[in-house]
Amino acid sequence: MRHLEKILRLTEVITGIMYALGAISICVLFLLMFGDVSGRFLFNSPIRGTAEVSEYLLVAIAFLSLGYAQLKGAHISVETLVIHFPEKLRTALDIFFTLLAIVFFTIMTMEIAERAYLDWESNILLSRTTVRLPVWWPSFVAALGCALLVISLGVQVLRDVLKLMGLYRDSVESE
């Protein structure tokens, strides 16, 4: 059990840092958009590259918080039918569908990471305006977010298997 607690704490710390980076990205996006609109309206001079940087920040906002949301149970779930099942069956179904999610997001992580690597290796730049940004960066961030989600899903499966075996105490579970 102590190993599970350590894994859970480490996962919470890492996903918490990524969550904080996602939150900072929201703030930066807000300030960037506010500055762009204000500059355009007041001085007829928008901030160059706002659209491109905003796209990059949106990737960070969307993907960096995935693992944290999974650990905290913050993803939306519909339990209309499952709520009437016995606890052990619900836990078994959770394990099954979480394993499916692990397979899906592992494939997604590998594909996005490969794309990021190829773009990095080719040094492809996004240049719709005068600002030239590397294309690999948002792909790398998306792959990192998906990888952290896979780790969080793995921790969830481990907890659920131990719960099914009667070896899991609720006091270990994160709030």
What proportion strand?
A: under 5%
The span between the termini is 17 Å
Whole-number tally of structural domains? 1
What's the oligomerization state? Answer: single chain
Strand count, sense and barrel status of the largest sheet are: 2 strands, antiparallel
Q: Treating each run of at least 4 consecutive H or I residues as one helix, how many helices?
A: 5
Q: What's the rounded overall pLDDT mean?
A: 88
The unreliable regions are none
Q: Using DSSP, what is the number of strands?
A: 2
Strand order of the largest sheet: 1-2
Short summary:
With 175 residues, the chain is mainly alpha-helical. The protein has 5 helices and 2 strands.
Give a verbal description of the structure.
73% of the residues lie in helices and 2% in strands. With 175 residues, the protein is mainly α. The protein has one domain (2-164). Strand 1 and strand 2 (133-134) form a beta hairpin. The radius of gyration is 20 Å and the shape is elongated. The model has no long low-confidence stretch (mean pLDDT 88).
